[in-house]
Fold this protein.
Amino acid sequence: MVKIGSPRPVRPADISVRGLGKQYPGASAPAMADVDLEVGAGEFVCVVGASGCGKSTLLRILAGFESASVGSVSVGAEPVRGPGPERGVVFQDYGLFPWLTVQENVAYGPKQTRLPKAEVTGRTERALETVGLQRLARSFPQQLSGGMQQRVAIARVLANQPSVLLMDEPFGALDALTRSALQAELKRIHRETGTTVVFVTHSIEEAVFLADRVVVMAGGTSHGNSGHVREVVAIDLPEPRDVTSAPFNELKRRVDALVHQSNATPPAPRAPAGAGPAPA
Ligand SMILES: Nc1ncnc2c1ncn2[C@@H]1O[C@H](COP(=O)(O)OP(=O)(O)OP(=O)(O)O)[C@@H](O)[C@H]1O
Ligand SMILES: [Mg+2]
């Protein structure tokens, strides 16, 4: 168990999404409708689906950057009313402050709180250690490769000790080798911190490699309906996962078929996509 600063506060980290819909101002139809999803504490959920089906919209609502038009969203039993340090967000474009060193970037979040200086330093050092970047603490982001910059972005959110990590195609801009290295690192971080993760990706292989469950979204206004959850697929594969194994590839084919299924028919009414059995 890697500790990042003081012991982790015991917080329920479940995510609960009920009847969520989003209508952007001026749009002719809702971008997303009727989304129900439960994510258990410590669960790793990947979200896949064709471009425009509302994956980023869902993530931004969970992050509190966008508001829901209808429905409710709660994290750790608290309704989401805006961004919060308990939800760490990582995007594809690292979003680092170029004028700050790696260390200063990582320390930025904890410094905004009233933590003692030693705690800020401790959290920063441990977060950098977790992503293997202690040696580059004094470098500036532009001196680093894309993979290293994304490690800094991950360390920066870990320093806030989030209970939930929200990641939108975080490895989308990386080369294949760096990408698989970071996938393995993220798995280790998830195992060691017990953080709940919601991870959006276009790569079905990445989703099946990382997730406990894969949420397949479909539709969107360009398909004449609203983005919605098509199906949730449980990935019951042992760890470490072997991407060449038959069960892995079978699940990959299944998710792939769901992603590419025609959008011609409107979504059928469906039961909530919860972790447990649907209520009677
Ligand atoms: N700020 C916005 N204002 C108006 N419409 C938006 C806004 N953001 C997204 N949309 C629309 O909402 C729909 C869903 O967009 P979203 O970015 O969530 O899709 P996505 O699944 O993340 O797509 P991609 O895979 O291309 O990233 C799209 O039709 C998009 O054009
Ligand atoms: Mg997106």
